[in-house]
Design a protein that fits this description.
4 helices; Non-ribosomal Peptide Synthetase Peptidyl Carrier Protein, Chain A; 62% helix; mainly alpha
Length: 89
């Protein structure tokens, strides 16, 4: 996978997650920071996030993949998307 593609995924993820964060009064977060612990992602936000990932990146996120480990941070979400895209090829 090209680094450019990874950067594009990460920047689109950051932008989407920042929109969610803004509604919760969180002004910033790092790529490694736990999005659940800092209050950005909650159970309702997870459904929005999964829908975004499936629509934007053309991946299918199975119910068993919707868990803390996969959706913990921008980095873990990016890794999930990249792995799903590479398996689809």
């Amino acid at each position: 996978m090209a680094v450019e593609q990874s950067d594009t995924i990460k920047s689109q993820l950051r932008e989407f997650i920042q929109e969610i964060a803004d509604t919760k009064g969180v002004s910033s977060f790092t790529d490694q920071e736990s999005l659940t612990e800092n209050g950005v992602i909650d159970s309702l936000s997870i459904f929005r996030l999964v829908s975004f990932l499936e629509e934007r990146f053309g991946v299918r996120i199975g119910d068993e993949e919707i868990n803390y480990d996969n959706l913990q941070s921008v980095e873990t979400i990016e890794q999930l998307v990249v792995s799903k895209q590479s398996r689809a090829r």
